[in-house]
Design a protein that fits this description.
Keywords: Cytoplasm, Nucleus, Protein transport, Transport
GO biological process, one term: protein export from nucleus
Radius of gyration: 26 Å
Number of helices: 21
Strand content: under 5%
Largest sheet: none
GO molecular function, one term: nuclear export signal receptor activity
Protein name: Ran-binding protein 17-like isoform X1
Distance between the termini: 64 Å
InterPro entries: ARM-like, ARM-type_fold, XPO4/7-like
Shape: elongated
Structural class: mainly alpha
Amino acid sequence: MLKNHTSEHFPFLGISECYSLTDFRCRTTFYTALTRLLMVDLGEDEDEFENFMLPLTVSFETVLQIFNNNFKQEDVKRMLIGLARDLRGIAFALNTKTSYTMLFDWMYPTYLPVLQRAVEQWYGEPACTTPILKLMAELMQNRSQRLNFDVSSPNGILLFREASKMICTYGNQILSLGSLSKDQIYPMKLKGISICYSALKSALCGNYVSFGVFKLYGDNHFDNVLQAFVKMLLSVSHCDLLQYRKLSQSYYPLLECLTQDHMSFITNLEPPVFLYVLTSISEGLTTLDTVVSSSCCTSLDYIVTYLFKHIAKEGKKPLRCREATQAGQRLLHLMQQNPDVLQQMMSVLMNTIVFEDCRNQWSVSRPLLVLILLNEKYFSELQASLINSQPLPKREVLAQCFRSLMEGVEQNLSVKNRDRFTQNLSVFRRDVAEALRCDGSTEPPGSLDMMS
């Protein structure tokens, strides 16, 4: 089987039209299984790997010839779809640095440009672009540290550059499709965008690329892919971001990576774009999907922590920090112009703690503390609003709950102080729940909404 995985022996590996394109999905599973068999005795034997890849090499060479001669487009398209699915199965099974490097050396620089060209040519055909984008997303996964190349190897940067080109190509082309009907928007556009976001997230969190290198050497691939991210994001409504689960579960973790390690990019966004991002976080905080709401809490925490630290450093502006100070100043200025944005989020988080079944209390507590420290006046108003909305007998109990919440909490963001607040919040939530359960009429959940 390892030596004879061709259409002659396995007809479903061919391009015959008796198999539909959806049947090609089986090829990914087939090649994952086959590659796991190969891995049993592969070790560092490059010749054995080359022999195993020979049928795919022949197919790619055929594709190259057809591309150059520009004929039988349908045949080459089916062949590429099959190859992308085959390679994704192989890449999924290669979980060691040695074996993954063999695959990368086989693909780059000869065959990856073929996939780039296919995305550029058939961007409006998801049956073709989806398998290719999924292959790229799989290649970006640093599973089992397989992408931790040797210190003398540029492979991590080369791989990211290829991914950047593909995401930019797809992003620019897909936006040229214009408006799509409700039943077409996901398969034709949003699915591809979600795969691009997954690939970018894997690259940003994989720890195999030093992104500072790009700016240092005047390479624009990193900037280009971030701009493509923004363009694709602005073409998606907030409603669609949350309506399509795969899209939300790729966008929000990507945003978490960006706010964690690339706040200079976030603070440089145009004000309408930055507010769009903040609104997407605000709406994601209330979703029932814990993965999404936790990512939103973490992203919000990174943003407001950055703002808090900037304000704390005001007046201490050494020259070496001038660039960071300017970035913080931009963020502060934007927040001063739109104070309601962070107030709204504080209100949402307090509503979640007080009135809802909060399953990620730890995640909620982190940004909530920073929001309270940034805007104590609004927190006092929120507190008064909740207390005054309850019957008189309960007001003193709730007031004591709020006093206990901030007991021992200092005006800083040290780990110890954050943990203290998180512990206080746990007790606060339990005590408030007990107080609201006691006999007497209460306002329905959402009492704090009037402060939003």
